[in-house]
């Protein structure tokens, strides 16, 4: 099984487990989110250690020991991206399974378990990008949209589309439901490693908001900003970011 195949398989199964946890009716509210995080994380850690015992792992839900820094191959996972949306049974939450090789998002999968019966977007199965909208759509947080994204949207004549998790927003660009995902409100490596691997494989522009490369498996897990967009919009968006900073 290739790395991308493994990522897709694990993300899909973790998504199914999460839906079963939610449908068990044993938990609700914050308890549901905590239970989902714990069960999904446990499954992903166990499977990765069994299938790729020599690789490092960085998970949002596990203590970071920094032993991963000695490894070139590190799996970066978010067991539930968008805990609030997961608890509300919305479609805009995700499971991230990404692989960093020598600091680059090399392979990955993002599962959207409540979308279309369980959709998984992956770095090894690439479809042509759907036609773009005439007016660019920028996906932003549905609860706390970043001010800079709002300013950029105004500068380029774009339309804001509110959405939940980072993975769901990034995959909206891959799926053709948006043209641009610009985030400046603070993220961590697990928030965007798998989405960037999938988006880059589909030919999208992926960078920091200053245009510099996204690097993974650094000692600081913070990766506070990201731009994922259709390539034809990259330069214009980066210029708008500079002008609105």
TrEMBL record:
<protein>
    <submittedName>
        <fullName>3'(2'),5'-bisphosphate nucleotidase CysQ</fullName>
        <ecNumber>3.1.3.7</ecNumber>
    </submittedName>
</protein>
<keyword id="KW-0378">Hydrolase</keyword>
<dbReference type="Pfam" id="PF00459">
    <property type="entry name" value="Inositol_P"/>
</dbReference>
<dbReference type="GO" id="GO:0008441">
    <property type="term" value="F:3'(2'),5'-bisphosphate nucleotidase activity"/>
</dbReference>
<dbReference type="InterPro" id="IPR050725">
    <property type="entry name" value="CysQ/Inositol_MonoPase"/>
</dbReference>
<dbReference type="InterPro" id="IPR000760">
    <property type="entry name" value="Inositol_monophosphatase-like"/>
</dbReference>
